[in-house]
């Protein structure tokens, strides 16, 4: 998983991720990666509209559910 904001980037391998939080508010998708060492890395993405932000959240939830079920 890669989070990027302007010129800064954080890349995580699945083995480095303890949990991922996904949320929406208005046109914003918020993704927060939590690592096993109790650090967290939030990132916000501005969507064209509220429906698109929710679509992205739903799609990401499906991916995360598939990964974390194992």
| Secondary structure: helix percent | 25-40%
Number of strands: 5
The largest sheet has its strands arranged as 3-4-5
> Termini distance?
17 Å
Q: What structural class do helix, strand and pairing data support? A: alpha+beta
Shape: globular
Account of the protein in words:
The chain has 70 residues and is α+β, with helices and mostly antiparallel strands. The chain has one helix and five strands, in the order E-E-E-E-E-H. The protein has one helix at 50-69; strands at 2-5, 8-11, 19-25, 28-34, 40-46. It has a three-stranded antiparallel beta sheet with strand order 3-4-5. The protein has a two-stranded antiparallel sheet with strand order 1-2. It is globular and about 35 Å long. 4% of the residues are buried. The mean pLDDT is 90.
Please specify the SSE layout and strand pairing:
Elements: E1 2-5, E2 8-11, E3 19-25, E4 28-34, E5 40-46, H1 50-69
Keywords for this entry:
single chain, 70 residues, alpha+beta, three-stranded antiparallel beta sheet, two-stranded antiparallel sheet, 1 helix, 5 strands, 41% strand
């Amino acid at each position: 998983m890669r989070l990027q904001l302007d010129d800064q980037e954080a890349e995580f391998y699945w083995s480095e991720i303890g949990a991922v939080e996904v949320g929406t508010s208005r046109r914003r998708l918020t993704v927060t990666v939590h690592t096993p060492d109790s650090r967290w890395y939030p990132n916000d993405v501005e969507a064209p509209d509220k429906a698109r932000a929710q679509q992205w959240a739903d799609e990401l939830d499906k991916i995360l559910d598939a990964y974390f079920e194992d």
